[in-house]
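Recall the central idea of this unit: under ordinary conditions, the amino acid sequence of a chain determines the structure it adopts. In this exercise we apply that idea directly, starting from the sequence alone.
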Amino acid sequence: MVAMAAERYGVHALGIGSDLCQDQPDSVVEWMRNGRWSIERDFGEGSADQPGFPPQPNWFEGIKDFPNISVGLAEIGFSADEIADIMGLNWLRFYEHNFVSLANGKTTS
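Accordingly, the structure predicted from this sequence is:
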């Protein structure tokens, strides 16, 4: 999935989210997908029959397995610099260029 997104949008447009909801009840994912603003019920990657959290892949049982993402990216041909970008540097650049410092009213870069 990451490789297809990189081909379509470029590596510099990608970032791995760190919003892991490990050991949370299904009510948390239901709120995240629907909140108070949704008109239609959204099951995300689930379905009406299985509306809760999807099972984790066997290589990612929890936050301790986050480095396995880097290993997988390397195995499918991403360079060390591309992996660093995807794993966090792209988010850092996004924040630096798009959020304003309250102290001086300017972006941080």
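The CA atoms of residues 24 and 53 lie 9 Å apart.
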